[in-house]
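Troubleshooting: if your tokenizer reports a length mismatch, compare your output against this known-good record of 563 residues.
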Amino acid sequence: MSLQRVVALPRQHSLRLPAILNPFVHQLKLTKAETVKCVLLGIILVPIRSVILLLVLMVLWPVAVMITFRQSLKGVVEPLTGWRRYILFTHMFFSQKLGQNKFKTPFLALGCWVTCKLRFLRQRVMTFLARIYFFGMGFRVIVKGRQASSAEAPILVVAPHSSFFDAIVSVEAGLPSTVSRSESLEAPIFGRFLSCVQPVLVSRKDPDSRKNTILEIDRRAKSGGHWQQVLLFPEGTCTNRSCLITFKQGAFVPGVPVQPVLIRYPNKLDTVTWTWQGPKVAKLLLLTLCQLYTTVEIEFLPPMIPNETEKKCPAKFAQSVRAVMAEVLGLSVTDHTYEDCRLMIAAGELTLPMEAGLVEFTKISRKLELKWDNVKKELESFANIACSCKGGRITIEEFASFLKLPISPALQELFSLFDRNGDGTIDFREYVIGVTILCRPVNNEGVIQTAFKLFDIDEDNCITQEEFSSLLRSALGVCDLDVHSLFTEIDVDGSGHITYDEFRSFALTHPEYAKLFTTYLDLQRYQALQGEEPEYNITSHGCSASHAVHSSQEDSASDKKDD
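Known-good structure output:
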């Protein structure tokens, strides 16, 4: 049976490219006809809508001040009570109580009726004015399905999250609590409106903020109706609605029923999508005001109740809910997350294309056991190689230049292992997978010691430049190989020879060389099993008198290299 070259790393299906490569980009290009239409409509609509919005804000402001009067805007731990709650919550309370026959006397029924009228006033005032606000911006809202009560589903999860206009879902849902940054409450006007719904606050300054946020969501979700519903956008960041990215687990940790809520913008011209790569807020707001109307569809799906396994594992519950929502929307799912956006920003700061930082962080971090800081360091290493490449991809020439070595069979073999899709280039995602799976596992003390002994021909515990170049010339089959720059980089103290500590330190920070070394050994073994003379054997290179040395029966340096 003939032997065949076996690739060291099978291509795992789970690490293949996602269906949507970049869900964080939105290209908004207007045709001449669309531009003319926006200008003509904008001349008429923008002034009118601006006046309407200003008038609504003038009415909303005193109502919001009245609700939050002498109330702390931060650290609220109990729901609003008394007249504030009457102004805030729904009239459904009264109808629910009547339906449950919980009024023992006419007097109590009358008192509850008055209470509910006040609640009805608050609900109607705030919700009506908020609807007028969005109507003034030109939104036409279509609601499908039935919103569950707080008892049926304490948590609402909304996706896909693609715009700051998604706040309209909160209005249609009756102003439930949301999760917001604590800095948002400091906004002069909208901070006051936000405080009315008593959001769960997230603080960047508090190291325990994530834990406290989850605990607060859990407390409210299990309050037995004491708190209003909590509305969350589980994706955690805005996308272009081409897929559903990873759902964060905060909404699913309590293990209570959740109601999925879908949001769509079925408009010919998309002026609402706000992503990391796309138009800014001001442009989108102006273009939206210039439209005759903007349609938004909100669909309430039936509540989903977690099973025992999903209660114990919030990640599985999140995946189940995402799968149902994606199926109804007809979208694919990917493992991108907010951390990918951070890597995009880091890539831009390193003069790489922003999309070069996309790696599907959730999948990469889980399967390769990498944290964000680790991936960020790999991005910096990748940038050092691809800095001259405009497309943010590494060619084999750049790969060889970075390693300060010529293109050889061993280098080509290593490059092909990195190049998972076989397009002749290495992107950042392939680089992270290659370094983590291929290079770092073999970059251990045993491999480093073996490599050092091979270079140290005279066994004096140091490597001279002559020994260094001799082995590389033999291994790579290049007679006139110049290794001075690589030798100088390893020889940190400039002593003219490389100690084991210097060799080890360099190897640990450059794992690519360890894999290159083991790849060379694999090729040697393969050719030996084939019964062929290695094409680039250290002992058969034809660059010096190595043939004579090899044929000698003495215990020579070449014999040692064969070992």
